[in-house]
């Protein structure tokens, strides 16, 4: 991931923003099962590096929306193959069955955290 210039946590945020389009911080935090203040803190470096913009919504000025910039899209495009390569290495190391079980367990943990 290093050659892309973004950290794995930042990659996740950029992927979510790309998938959700211009998205309210509160909605994004909910989708990530993350506290809004933590998300805002994690978005700051991306905003500083001009990979995302955080602006008031056109529909409701009280709501702040996050969107990818062209620079953010380029960084994400560089990072995707690196992410895929890392995932392949993990699968080769653990085996697909073990990796699937681990992902199922993590999904259960996240689901449990979301309901508490």
UniProtKB/TrEMBL annotation:
Residues 1-111 form the HTH marR-type domain. InterPro entries: HTH_MarR-typ (IPR000835), MarR/SlyA-like (IPR039422), WH-like_DNA-bd_sf (IPR036388), WH_DNA-bd_sf (IPR036390). SMART domains: HTH_MARR. This is MarR family winged helix-turn-helix transcriptional regulator. GO terms for biological process: response to stress. GO terms for molecular function: DNA-binding transcription factor activity. It comes from the Bacteria. PROSITE patterns: HTH_MARR_2 (PS50995).
């Amino acid at each position: 991931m290093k050659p892309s210039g973004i950290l794995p946590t930042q990659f996740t945020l950029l992927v979510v923003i790309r998938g959700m389009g211009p998205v309210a911080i509160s909605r994004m935090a909910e989708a990530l099962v993350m506290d809004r203040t933590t998300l805002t803190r994690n978005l700051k470096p991306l905003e500083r590096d001009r990979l995302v913009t955080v602006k008031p919504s056109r529909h409701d000025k009280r709501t702040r929306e996050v969107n990818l910039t062209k620079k953010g899209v380029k960084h994400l495009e560089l990072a995707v193959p690196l992410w895929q390569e890392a995932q392949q290495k993990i699968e080769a190391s653990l085996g697909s069955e073990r990796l699937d079980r681990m992902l199922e367990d993590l999904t259960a943990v996240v689901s449990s955290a979301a309901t508490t």
